[in-house]
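INFO  loader      accepted 1 record
INFO  loader      residues=295
INFO  predictor   begin
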Amino acid sequence: MAQHHCPYISQRDELNIAPGMQVRAGDVYTVRESVFTPIYDLLRNCLEGDLRSQASQAYHAKVTEQRFKRRPCIVMQDYPASSTTPQARRLCLVGTLEHQPISCLPRIFREFCIPVFPHTCAFDDHLHSSPEWEPTDAWVVAIPFDSSRRLLGKWRDEYAGIPARTRAFGTEAMLYLKDRSMEKRAQWIMKCRQDPAFAREHFKECRDHKAPATEKSTDALSMLSGVSKASVRTHTRAPFKPQINASMASLAHAFHKIRVSNTSKVSVRSNASNFTLHRDLLMKESANGMDVTAF
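INFO  predictor   done
INFO  writer      dumping tokens
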């Protein structure tokens, strides 16, 4: 399929230069982490009974596993301590799905993945890195989560004859990623509320999905590998710009876990319909044991 050509080619996204911060929001680091970690963390807060217990056990198993592949991750907030300092950090993972169509993996990928421009699939909903990402089939798993994994330095592309270089996501790209992450989580909560079997079906798909025989890791979702090729592009393009509701923009700028305030409401855009999730709905879900944390 032909690559999608973004209309915002003339704009340049500014990188985060927060003073005094050694690890900055938008930086792309290397980490050994499974995408099962954020997915099971999400699912365990949406399930009940035995399946909730299974998802929690799977989550804790991923947290303690040490053999995952190296993969790129986007740092979601600023940290004054160096990348070698042991601490939990808010991350989003990036990967290539082993260069497979996203339809080959459990449906939850289609719920939460955002393509990185340029991409072999044509999506208006996408993110830009600086410089542009390679290869052209990378996805961001838009489930921000806290990871205590050690960061293994900046993610670098390497290719014969081309010096290794780092990448980052600019301030507009990060605002868009945070906005879309909140949107996707709110839409997920709505679907779980409307259909009690929704989360159960997604959990069972993830639990039962088998990795290809060539995959060394023990789970299918860790196929989001960090294998990368070098890019000969140095041109930077701004991300696709959403129409961000004022309250959503305010939420997206916060660099900590957010709960809906007493007066705020979160507007959520949907391709199928437009609807608004009010505080009382989110608080009701929270009271029922569902995690409605935005970041």
